Amino acid sequence: MPLLDWPQPVPSCGVVLFASIEPPGMDAFGGLRDRGFDVVADANATPGDWTLRIGHPTWGRATLNGPIAKVAKLVAASASADGHLTRTERETVTRARSGVTLTVDALGESPIVARKRFLRFAFAVMGTASVGVVDLLSQRIWSRGAIVDELSIDAELDVEGLYIRHMISNSGPAPEWLHPHGLGEIGAFDLDILNPDVAFSDLRLDTVRAIAFTILERRAQMGEELELAEPEGTIAFVPAEQFMRAAAPEHVALRDSDAATDEAHLVNRAVVCEPESSPFAMLAGRPTPSIFLSAPEPEGMILQASKAVSDFMARRARASFPLLRATFDALRGDADVFVKLAYDSELPALPKEHLWFRAHGFRDDAIDATLLSAPFGILAMQAGARGWHGIDRLSDWKLGTPYGPVFPWFTAHSRTARRRAR
Questions:
Q1: Is there a contact between 240 and 262 (Cβ–Cβ < 8 Å)?
Q2: pLDDT value at position 6?
């Protein structure tokens, strides 16, 4: 199913957070009218229980309900696990003591479109006093800076914005259970990776994202297998309840905690396992956690992506180019920057090749870069060749900073770099 053709069946909802113990009253949001919104108060509103209906000519309609007190526990639970927050942002959002709920009406659109619309409404409601927003479907916390970054990118929200990752270590420093939350809340399903490779905390974040894209496209189905990557990257999605009944005790124990047996960790959730044809699964005769995701990433591994996902990633890479350039400038060029550029191939079976380059500098419309490896079907291009390339060819990028990596879908370390450069 094409990426943008799956309608989200549920409204987007969250809590706009404030540091004040006394929650803001509905009069605090009257200024939305001056910014082009229709604002209608419920006729039975009281200071302790009020509702505002908000309309926007482009974004649709939303509802504000207030007030909400005692949000600290909600925020603490999400902030501690949210790797998309900088340390400063985490400190800021954990000051939240009150809030108002924001529900944005569903318009029958893809979740990555719907959730971007939610962030536009949320930013308008935040005003100058809010310290952040909790997305109740994904459990993600959005800082003010994260929303500003996202709204500066003229493309749909990345699938990474639809979930939060929890990494659990029950018996030592090595992770034993990686499980996102958020995809099940929109009518899809979430996934568990047991005994994940330690690189899933940073360098292999893109693998979880690749699986999430296949779920969003409905290419991945509960109870079925999927060729995620080459080589040897076939995985199976075993329903969590089935896994808990049938897997070996030592594998069940990896997720056998109080949390693992509640509805949020069993319903609409699959454990990523070996395919039935795997020698390991055949020998065990029962569901076996994916070895591909437990072992280090194979050299030369290529994650599979549909044309719709590839086109989306290219749109987002180009739309976030100003953010890439701003981060590079903040670091005064002292950063490792890699860009993926698309060129027509001379091979009939390979219309385009997406090639990685090391970038050295930028203009408004071009990138100075060196090709890292020879293409398969473009005889005129050789590894090591340096030149200027138009940003219309850009299909992905990644930037290394002293604080951690930055991608078109992960910008926390960019904000740290830009803040420290001021």
A1: no
A2: 75
- Rounded to whole angstroms, the Cα distance separating 174 from 189 reads 26
Backbone angles phi, psi at 69, to 5 degrees: -110, 165
> Left (φ > 0), alpha (ψ -120 to 50) or beta: where does 260 sit?
alpha
Q: Which residue has the tokens 């020879």?
A: 374
Give the integer Cα–Cα distance in Å for 293 and 319.
Answer: 31
Asked if 112 contacts 3 with a C-beta cutoff of 8 angstroms, the reply is: yes
Residues of the chain with pLDDT under 50: none
Number of residues written out for the chain: 422
106 close to 63: Cβ distance less than 8 angstroms = no
- Beta-ladder partners of 380: none
CA separation for the pair 323, 337 (Å, rounded)? 13
Q: How far apart are CA 191 and CA 189, in angstroms?
A: 7
d(CA 414, CA 327): 6
Let me know: does 347 contact 376? Beta carbons within 8 Å: yes
203-250 pLDDT, tens digit per residue, is 788 999 999 999 999 999 999 999 999 888 999 999 999 999 999 999
Using alpha carbons, list the distances in angstroms from residue 203 to 117, 275, 297, 345, 406: 29, 25, 10, 29, 11
Give the pLDDT of residue 2: 65
Each residue's pLDDT tens digit, 81-117: 788 999 999 999 999 999 999 999 999 899 999 999 9
Per-residue pLDDT, 258: 63
pLDDT at 376: 87
